[in-house]
Amino acid sequence: MTTNPTRDRINPEVMDTTPMRRPSWIKVRAPSGENYENLQRLMRSKSLHTVCEEAGCPNMGECWGSGTATFLMLGDVCTRTCGFCDVKHGRPERLDWAEPERVAQAVSKMNLRHAVITSVNRDERRDGGAPIFAMVIRRIRELQPGCSVEVLIPDFKGSIEALQIVMSARPEILNHNVETVPRLFKQVQPQDRYEWSQAILTNARKLDSEVLTKSGIMVGLGERFEEVQEVMRDLRDWGVDILTIGQYLQPSRKHLPIRRYYEPQEFEDLGGYGMDLGFKWVESSPLVRSSYHAGEQVRALSVIHRKLNEEK
Questions:
Q1: What is the pTM of this model?
Q2: Residue 282 — φ and ψ, nearest 5°?
Q3: Nearest to residue 250, comparing CAs of 45, 3, 49, 15?
Q4: Residue 213: strand pairing partners
Q5: In whole angstroms, what is the distance from residue 291 CA to residue 300 CA?
Q6: How does 221-245 read in b/e, with b if 16+ C-beta sit within 10 Å?
Q7: CA 118 → CA 121, 254, 265, distances in Å?
Q8: pLDDT band per the 50, 70, 90 thresholds, residue 296
Q9: Rounded to 5 degrees, what angle do the CA atoms 287, 292, 296 make?
Q10: What is the mean pLDDT of residues 18-38?
Q11: Domain architecture of the chain: domains with CATH
Q12: Inter-residue contact 279 to 236 (CB < 8 Å)
């Protein structure tokens, strides 16, 4: 049974879920334009999903307008019930083993230089759907030579066996978002564990040091500024190369409320702090999402990253 991801556990009598008035620096353009419409038709023709649509990404207009998108695989129904997410949750259908072929064909038709692949959680499977990730990476390489691939994966409950399946296909970037600070995990993403995120990110580096690792944090859910900095230090200690920090935006009144909007200067401060910690790249601003400027990141860092590993 599929349900809407709105959270029954959020009781309006206890928690004020009325959306806060957006400040002047939060401006989202409605998606439009010829490239956007062409991409939308392509997705529909191949029965594909994008996280851009499913999660209501504020950058959809900009990214789709430039001909890029983040593909959502393993179906469009998630087995987890995160309070910030607008993706449907419930009991998913069986895996579609033809999905990697359709995604790779779309990447080729769009003539992408960098493809971002993510998925829902599939906790009903021991491998979490990891083989689908490996299949799509390899097929993109066949149909679109020279296209770099970034995978934004679930935590696979910390399974190194599932992670090995993905890493064996050697994506350019292995991305897994921690999303929030440890204190808020049970409220924000009740089925997730901080330790599982740590296992995925640290083991990815151990399995293949040439693959760039990446993670992201949302702010505005009730965390303290210092807690964000603590998570940033953890991520750097785990060997993460790329960090994204963005403002949480409440999809509806039935999702977790925004506790506060961070000021643009605070994002700049976090970005500077991240670079001081040693991250190779930090994207930190209100509308940043995990795959924002992903192509620029991989093109700028891959050569440098490879040379550093050769020098070790």
A1: 0.83
A2: -130, 125
A3: 15
A4: 174
A5: 15
A6: bbbeeebbbebbebbbebebbbbbb
A7: 10, 24, 30
A8: low
A9: 140
A10: 67
A11: 29-311 (3.20.20.70)
A12: yes
